[in-house]
Each structure stands twice: as C-alpha cells, then as structure tokens.
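Trying the structure run again after the queue cleared.
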Amino acid sequence: MEISEYLRVIWRRLWILVLVPLLAGGAVAGLVLKAPEKYRATATVAAPALIGGPSSNQYSGANGPRAFVANFAAAVTSTRILSQVAKETGAPESRVADGLAASPIGDSSLIEVTYQTTAAAEAGNVARAAAADTIRFLFQTQVTLAEHTVGEASKALAEAESKLNAFYRSTGMVLPDKAYEIKTQQLANLQQQQAQSQAEGQLTAAAALAATVRAKQAELQALVPKVAAYQSLLDRKQQASGQLDLMQQGLDQARAQYSAADPAAAVTLGETNRAPLLAELARKVLPAVGAGLFLAVGVVLLLELLGRRPQATAEAEPALADAPTTLARSTALPRRGLRVRAELESRRLAEQGDGTASGGQLSPDPPPRSS
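Done. Tokens:
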C-alpha cells in the first residue's frame, strides 16, 4: 500500500479514530467527576544537617543528596512503612499505598511527601506519619547496624580477655614477658661473674656459677613458649580493644545523625487542601484517550482486512472460470502453427515450379494419378 492508500483508509474510517478515544476519555472523565471529593496534604522533609559532612556520615559526598532522595522515595512506599503508618493513623493500608507519594523539590535534598484521600481528617495525619517514620527508618537502621558491630567487637574482646585469664590460671604467671626479661638479666650477670672468677683463678666458684648458669638457661628455655603464647593473647586483646573503640565511634556518629533526624525538627506539615480536579483528570483521562486511540487503530485494521477478503475471492473466481478457455487456446496454438507452416511450404514449391516453366526447362513429371 502506498501513502495515498493509507490516507484514504484513514479518511474513510476517521469517525472510528475520533469516536473511540472520545468515548474512552469521556467515560473515565465521568467516573472521575462522579467520584467523591479528594483532599491532599503535604509534609516537607528538610534535614540539611544529615546530608554531606565528613565521609563517615551516611549521605556524604557529591552523590549524598541524590542517594538520600532515592532511598527516601523508595522507603516511604515500602511495606514496612505502609504497615506502620496504617497502624499509627488507623487508615487502611491499601488506601495509604494508593494515595502516598514522595518527590524531591528541584535538585535539592528537600522532599515533599503527599497524601491524597477522600477523608479530609486523615490526610494530614498520614502525610506527617509517613514522613516521620521514613526518616526515622533511614537513620535508625544505621544505629541498629552500628550497635550490632559494637556488640560483635565486645564479644571478641571478652573472648580475648577470657583466654588471657585462662593463661594466667594455667601458668600462674601474670607477666611472663617481664619475668623473661628479669631472668635474662640475671643470666647475663651470672655469666659475667663466672667469667670474672675464671679470670681470677677461682675455679671452685666458677664451677658453682656454671651450674647456676645452666639452671637459669633451662628456666629461660621453658619460659620461651609461655612468653610467645602470652604475647599472642595480648596482641589479640589489643586488636579487639582497638576494634571496639572504632565501632563505638561509629555508633556515636550514627546516634548523632539519628538525633539530627528528629521528625519534630525535620518534618513540616502543610495545610490540607482539596485535590485539584484538573490534575486528576489529566492523570487519568489522557491515558484513557491513548488506550482508546490504540483500540481504534486495531478496529480499523480489522475492518480493512475483513473488507479486502471478499474482493480477493471475487477476483479469483473469473480467473478460475476462464481457465478451460485459456487452456484450449494454448493447446490450439501449436496446431495452427503447423497448418500455417504447411501452407507456406506449398506456396514455395509452387513458385519454384512456375519459375522452372518460364525458363524453358522441363518440369518434373507429375505424379501418376491413381485410377
């Protein structure tokens, strides 16, 4: 089909393409106009102290505002928040889910939480509760996570201290590393005295000191594994203590952010107003008109296909009726060609015969006649 044919089809079925979308849009507009009057409340969330700042903050850096807005918009319509708001306000959870929405104000980190409903009394309560519960949820999770990590670090420190205490009980030594240092110093003094006695010729004293030196060396050899075990346990305790201090700092920062996210200071509730009817009509009627236009195009295509099928059948029937005649003609053509060729050959022979007689030559004898 060419473009002109498409245009002719559109012009011929124009009433369908206009009537169906109008009927769809009119039906939806009638339902919207007959619906009960709706009320709208808006709660503004402004918490600039929670955005940016040091890298340890939850929403820091250049993408902090976007991350905060995205997380807030996703959390405000989550099942947890919807259920919590429904319990606090007494509104059905399904109605809260249908009328609740959140959107940023421009490119800032400020967010508007809107709730639209037919019950004017619950509009403001639901909007404020949704905004407050969502901002609590975003920063309460960080506090909960920080508390969990602090608890794990405390368990690790307690385990290290318990193993160190068990070492004290089993060895009877509180500071084996200090004892090792003392015995090492004593051994060095004894070895020095032994060398001096040998130099002075006091062989008996030198022999006695040699026995004492061997005993001290044996004590040091037995003390080496205990010192190593004690040092390992002590290092583990110090690591656990340092990790606990770090986690405690994170918990303190999370709690500070949670305090800054107090809904009393971060959430501002506006007045409850009637929902604009024009916006509601545009939100519902325009999609209905689009769906009606799509349906109209489908109807036009279907009618065109059904209208072309009988025409194709009618064109095929004469062709089938003329088939025998066409076949007969095609069969007769070779026979007619043979007759024409025979006539042409006979004429050629006759002309040759006439030319021979005029030249004085004898013509061939005629064929004998049959009696």
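Residues 356-371 have pLDDT under 50 and may be disordered. Worth checking whether this holds up in the mutant runs.
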